[in-house]
Design goal:
The complex is a heterodimer of chains A (326) and B (379). Chain A has one domain: Alpha-Beta Plaits (2-Layer Sandwich). The longest helix of chain A has 25 residues. In chain A, 46% of the residues are buried. In chain A, the strands form five sheets. Chain A has a three-stranded mixed β-sheet with strand order 9-1-12. Helix content of chain A is 28%, strand content 17%. By secondary structure, chain A is an alpha+beta fold. Chain B has a single domain, classed as Formate dehydrogenase/DMSO reductase domain (Formate dehydrogenase/DMSO reductase fold, Up-down Bundle), CATH 1.20.1630.10. Helices cover 69% and strands 1% of the residues of chain B. In chain B, helix 2 packs antiparallel against helix 11 and helix 4 runs antiparallel to helix 12. The longest helix of chain B has 35 residues. Classes of the chains: A alpha+beta (326), B mainly alpha (379). At the A-B interface, helix 1, helix 3, helix 4, strand 7 and helix 7 of A face helix 1, helix 5, helix 6 and helix 7 of B.
């Protein structure tokens, strides 16, 4: 092959892959029809951490103890022993709740159950799966090889590997529906939603929760709203409270394809440690590039045929020229 | 008669013993990792789940091992037969680099006892870039072994098998060019799914595979120049400089392409401002650029190119530049979010140094035993 032809062929295949609209780019995945999820309203959270404690109970995980503070779980972030954690935002004098300057608020961290999950996309052995009915992102240790690509592929750093075990595995929230727990399949709600006294963590279908969030957003600050608690389809309790100064932003409606666990707050989400995500999921871009190159292995097969032909010809010419072996 | 011959000489030289000691220290920590878990010796955490074991041993180590790929491409595809003497040493370092990269990957697997799942088709996720990398690297290790096998078959004198292998060789060389093209570009594609965690100066989205393949080729060519020059000095052999400096021209082309694509992307993707922030990321980017420009400056001039020492300097600069490019993207400017930081622990580094030492020891043993280095022409 002439060098020029080779460079041309290479440039052409590069153009296929890198073109502004890669050949097989896919859009973000759509939410599962009956996806279940949760709505976390930061303005309702009082930081009691009942959800943290209930989560540990449901998932049989020990509390994290810091120093001599034995009376409560001191988990500061997600870990293989903590699938759900309440974090605090504090600014300046931290005088009043839900105030960005000189204020404070609480924020929940747990798996967001992405509509287009990065962990599922990157896992080489299908150990992370999105349930086709519930949309819950599940983990399957029997398939997992422990490469931890799910951890780097998750925008929220949710999957956590048990580094301190000789035979560890990934731990993540599976919405209380993993084998042996199966609360959702049994018609129950998630542990954290059940334990939450104020309804800050509300369980329901993604559609209903999104409607609920938009309703709260649409109301004027100071108007009285009847907040439900527990499972949005059958709330066991309501309480009246004035509508706070919500940010007009439902986190998880659109971010990277959206999430089934959505957050609303009076403080901007970047202040609460949410990542700078765009609407397009990174997974969809990566898969578009990957499939443009590897669909049916067509490009590699053509390349292999071409290379075999050229190399065979070159070796034969070489042998004739020198009359010797390689 | 083969164009290659064993170097000979004793195995237990002083450098060899030094590498053996480093390897044994690394080996001790490897054993600890398997008994007590990865957390006992590494600083890996929830945000940085890929540390130096992945980023050095696999992502950078396999790029260093692209010599066999670069030379095969030159000799067999672009039909530059005069570079033939470089083939075997390049293949050997590729084989070693990849085999140990594979070992590093296995070592890093949190659930290593079921690592074989990646080879079972019913587990495969075709959306996963890492699946492509894993399978392709595994296959390539086998292909490299076959490509290198004539050295071994010549030694044991199995003429029949040697002839059969040589007849099929064109196909394995073709695979040996195709497979690295695939997984080396995929190593870049891995960064796409990491999204915002990859610094904007390195997150080029759909251009990641292109950047990765160019950097792999430059590193492949420069490791050939580096090794060629180093072997000449270390084993006191006739210099291959005239042969090597021709490759220099190819490197210049690749380096200029790399820089041109990179700067164009900065403009197109609107990330120029990050260059002037004066933070660590911008400094690292600047350092990479310098490391890429130095070899261009040296190699572009026929006079400087003819100088063995300068040639070596160019190769080293380029190798560091390519390695730094990958280190920066995957680790040094990688930002999983607030609350996470990573610096490798001493045992973690010793494991990596142990693996490198093992690679060097095996290289030394093999070139002394098998016909790998070109037969010296006594003038």
């Amino acid at each position: 092959m002439k060098r020029r032809d080779f460079i041309k062929a290479t440039a052409a295949s590069a153009a296929v892959v890198c073109g502004p609209e890669t050949a097989l780019a896919r859009p973000n995945l759509e939410p599962a029809e009956n996806a279940v999820g949760m709505l976390f309203d930061s303005t309702l959270c009082v930081g009691c951490k009942a959800c943290v404690s209930k989560c540990k109970e449901v998932n049989s995980m020990p509390p994290v103890i810091e120093g001599d503070k034995l009376s409560w779980d001191s988990a500061r972030d997600l870990s293989p022993k903590t699938l759900n954690v309440i974090k605090v935002y504090k600014d300046g004098t931290a005088e009043s709740k839900d105030q960005e300057v000189d204020g404070f608020c609480f924020e929940k961290r747990s798996c967001m159950h992405c509509v287009d999950p990065g962990c599922v996309s990157v896992c080489p052995v299908t150990a992370m799966r999105r349930d086709p009915l519930t949309g819950i992102v599940t983990y399957h240790a029997d398939a997992c090889i422990g490469c931890r690509n799910c951890m780097v592929g998750c925008p929220y750093n949710v999957p956590q590997f048990e580094y301190d075990e000789a035979f560890g595995q990934i731990q993540k929230c599976q919405m209380c529906n993993q084998a042996g727990v199966e609360r959702i399949n049994n018609g129950q709600m998630t542990g954290c939603a059940e334990a939450c006294p104020t309804g800050a963590t509300l369980f329901g279908t993604r559609k209903e929760l999104l409607k609920e969030a938009k309703q709260r957003m649409a109301m004027k600050e100071g108007e009285i709203y009847n907040y439900p608690r527990g499972d949005l389809s059958k709330p066991d309790h309501y309480h009246e409270k004035a509508i706070p100064a919500y940010q007009q932003h439902i986190w998880g409606e659109k971010e990277a394809g959206g999430t089934n666990v959505m957050h609303i707050s009076a403080i901007p989400f970047d202040k609460l440690g949410m990542p700078p995500l765009k609407e397009r999921s990174s997974a969809s871009i990566a898969e578009g590039v990957q499939h443009s190159i590897y669909n049916y292995l067509a490009l590699p097969a053509i390349a292999l045929a071409g290379l075999s032909f050229v190399i065979r010809k070159n070796i034969n010419e070489d042998t004739e020229d020198q009359g010797g072996n390689s | 008669m083969s164009a290659y011959q064993p170097v000979g000489g004793k195995y237990f030289t002083r450098p060899f013993i030094f590498f053996l000691i480093v390897f044994l220290i690394g080996f001790y920590f490897m054993a600890e990792r398997f008994i007590l878990g990865m957390g006992s010796i590494s600083n890996l955490n929830g945000g940085f789940s890929w540390g130096i074991w992945v980023v050095y041993d696999v992502v950078i180590g396999t790029a260093f091992a692209c010599g066999g790929y670069a030379v095969a491409l030159t000799v067999y595809v672009l039909n530059k037969g005069k570079y033939h003497p470089l083939v075997r040493p390049a293949l050997l370092t590729s084989l070693l680099g990849y085999a140990l990269g594979g070992f590093g990957a296995f070592f890093d697997m949190g659930r290593w006892w079921q690592f074989y799942n990646i080879f079972l088709p019913w587990h495969w996720n075709f959306n996963s870039v890492l699946l492509e990398v894993g399978l392709c690297v595994a296959l390539y290790i086998g292909v490299l072994a076959i490509e290198f096998s004539p050295a071994f078959l010549e030694k044991i004198g199995s003429k029949k098998l040697l002839n059969r292998v040589n007849k099929m060789m064109f196909f394995f060389i073709a695979l040996g060019v195709l497979l690295p093209t695939m997984h080396q570009s995929s190593l870049g594609t891995l960064l796409i799914a990491m999204g915002h965690k990859v610094h904007p100066l390195w997150q080029t989205w759909q251009f990641q595979p292109l950047m990765a393949i160019i950097s792999a080729l430059t590193m492949g060519f420069s490791i050939v120049v580096f090794e060629g020059a180093f072997v000449s000095v270390g084993f006191n052999r006739v210099s291959e400089t005239p042969l090597l400096r021709g490759l220099g021209k190819a490197i210049v082309g690749l380096l200029i392409t790399f820089l041109a694509v990179r700067f164009s992307l900065l403009l197109i993707q609107g990330n120029v401002a990050y260059l002037f922030k004066g933070d660590m990321a911008s400094l690292l980017y600047l350092l990479e650029t310098v490391l890429f420009v130095v070899p261009i400056y040296i190699l572009i001039s026929p006079v400087r190119r003819a100088n063995g020492g300068k040639l070596l300097l160019a190769a080293i600069s380029m190798l560091l530049g390519g390695a730094l490019y990958r280190f920066d993207a995957f680790l040094l400017t990688f930002d999983p979010g607030p609350g996470y930081s990573y610096f490798p622990s001493m045992p973690e580094m010793m494991v990596t140094l142990g693996i490198i030492s093992l690679e060097i020891m095996v290289f030394l043993i093999v070139v002394k035993t098998l016909p790998v280095l070109p037969r010296e022409k006594h003038s």
